[in-house]
Amino acid sequence: MSSISIVIPTYNRQKSLNKCLSCINAQTKLSSLENIYLVNDGQSSIEDIANKYDFLSSRIIILKTNGIGPAAARNKAIEFIKSKYVAFLDDDSYPQISWLFSCEKLFDENPFIIAQLGKILWDNKENHTTFLRSFIPKLRQKIYDYRDCMYQNNEFIHEIIKIVNFKEKLQVKGLSNHISGGNFAIKRSFFTEHGGFNLNYFTYHDKELAYRILNNNGIIAYNPQMEVFHAHDPSILRSIKRGAFTVKFKLLLQKEYENCKWASNTSNMIDPKLLNLSKIETLFFKIQRLVERIVILYLKLNNRNE
Question: Could you tell me the pTM of the whole model?
């Protein structure tokens, strides 16, 4: 049994953080849990929340940062961690009761694995009954479900084998080419030796880390038993803005990792034709792609002027 620590960056979401910690407190197995690092990157106090849980309170360590962003906040916590493995959650990710046990089990049974990606499900469906409140969460969950199917069927194995030269890769049922900052775990030694999250990526830092793992001959396993429910943001406008903001980081990813075929796909490995989309969802995808193309054109023109 290996020791594991959990890192949770948080930004002014006390209610979500409280629910996240409550889910951790309810885990079936906590004996190998070393510490929980809460990196408070916002202005709200979280000390009262951290002291609510008798078992966890002695293991919770609060670190204060000031708006440095999720990647830097996660790197900050790693400076203090000594456990063999580190698991990462968002403050609005709610791990299911066997989440930690499933994570430990896969690492213990497959010690050659560098990292593992868990399954993400939509939380709080009952409060998103209107079209405007449910449209983006439903669409986002379709993407997660599509990936879940792809990973469990080892759809990416042929591409991964071209990069990773490691015989044990064939023992892993679901090879992944991706990690998500809101639900993944990694060997601490690899994370620290390879510089943690790349701070050139304000967003997409988790995807960049995944490509770095693969390019260093590492294996990422998909663990569908390592489940979290996630509070998908319902805002259509924020979704479009977020897509526009990530374009420059997608382009940077493509430039740095030309050998990763899927990195060249700015739609993030997803072919809309495979998602069984409704007409309105298809239209939304087209709008997002149009916004991305406009941003790409703007960035190219801006680079020429410089």
Answer: 0.92
